[in-house]
Amino acid sequence: MKSPMKSPMKSSATTPMKLLLALDDGPGARRAVDEAIRIAREKGATLDALFVIDATWDVFTGHDWLSGCNSRIGFLEYMQGLEEKAAAESARAFLERRGDVPGELLTAPGDVVDVIREHAARGYDLLVLSSPFTRGLEVMRDAVTRLTRDAPCDVLLVRAAPE
Amino acid sequence: MEDKGLFGKILAIVPGLAVMIGTLYVLRVYVEPWMKDAVVFGSKGWLVQVLSLNYILLSILTGMFYRNILFGGKIPAWAEEGFRTTRLFIKTGVIMLGSLYTFDKLLKVGGVAITLIVAFVFGTAIFVLWLGKRLGADRSVTATMAAACGVCGVSAAVATAPGVRAKPVDLALSIATILGFGIMTMFVSPFVGKMLSLSDYQFGAWVGTGILNSGQVLATCLAFNPNFAPGTAVAYGEIWNVVRVLCIPFVVFFITAWYWKGEADAEHVSLGSILASKFPIFVLGFIGMTALSSLHIIGAEGSETLHLMRDVMAWVFGIGLVGLGAYIDVREIKAAGGTPLRIGLIAGVSKYVIAMIIILAFIPKEGAF
């Protein structure tokens, strides 16, 4: 876990290192947060945390042709509500642990992997996420493979703590 | 999201819709005729006769190919709006299907359909509620799976989820299970139906009772017999489908009431509000079309108008099914697991097999029309 960290390091004389932590609600979420905070402290880096509100439930249930508009809208609103609740809980947990590490808390809706990739391309040196990464409907997909395939920056995967 | 205006919205539909229409054109005009003549394993037309491949199944398979192989797992942004018209096409097709019936024909098979559907819908729901308890499943998972296995698959899960506070992960797993099971039965059923020499009436009644997802009932009936006419598998299967669809609000009410009965912070559940929010309004279009047919307003059997209408219906369904296939992500189905998968498999297989036994025992080969 330490060796991949060497390449993105920047000397303290240049711009501080920028970390992006992708938040999720899986078993490895807490460990990923702790690891990102530890690295940020160690390197004097800024740490931005990103929670993506999964907006792909409409597509996920796209094969359901039968539901009426009311039923479908009610369902999508319900899922949106749950996503927002998860975002608030995740944000609270992150802010409680972050302490004095500088950085922002970002929330954005969309396809989880697309949004993370898009943010990671905004000048970050390292993307930290848990593996498996189970934010929203990524529990049914393979976010880690998709993200590492063409990541715009270095990626640190943090395993869930062994039970 | 930027506001494109009406013209922009219509324009955004064009690329995806063109893909769906173009695909169906190629399948119907070139691929299907080729398959009928193709010699495989020394037998002419083997692909059609043995594998039951016709433009309906090919439409779904091609849509799945687009999504999972060509598009790399995600419908691209340029095609998204066009593929979104899928629901519109299939609902239009179902409304047009109403023209295959008259009210006196519906009455002839309606009693059998209602008896079988009500027994299977509520029987399955009660069985799943019991099974969920036996397997120690979370109450919201049990409730979602009871609706999904009992009545109309994914649509029922979508309708029930908010009322039973379904969790996203459980819901995703339930939907993947139901969809996966439905797809499997969609490809297996025509083969089984032909092997058992089922008539169109028996086949329509069987899949209308036994298959979990309503969309797949239609596709399976059309895979068995791709013709749109009174007395075909789709004509019978759709009667079963409509009865099922009408059951959705009642099943949602029953299961939501069961769920809240076991919760400490019980909420009041009203059948009226569920009927208002969950009633599938397109069924009224179907009934309206049957009324027009009963009044002989859309032409007598064999008329040019009806012939044209059925041809349009075939195109409308085919286009919709290409889109339906494109919404099937194999990775998501492969991720199905846990308690929803166990419940889905036990309930789904039991319903499918028991429905077959009942049909063979009690439904005659000769249909009512």
Automatic annotation (TrEMBL), chain B:
Transmembrane regions listed in the UniProt entry: 7-26, 46-66, 109-131, 143-165, 171-193, 205-227, 239-260, 281-300, 312-330, 342-363
InterPro entries registered for this protein in UniProt: UPF0324_pro (IPR018383)
A Pfam family: Cons_hypoth698
Subcellular location: Cell membrane
Major place of residence: membrane
Membrane topology type: Multi-pass membrane protein
Keywords: Cell membrane, Membrane, Transmembrane, Transmembrane helix
Name listed for the protein in its UniProt record: YeiH family protein
Species of origin: Nitratidesulfovibrio liaohensis
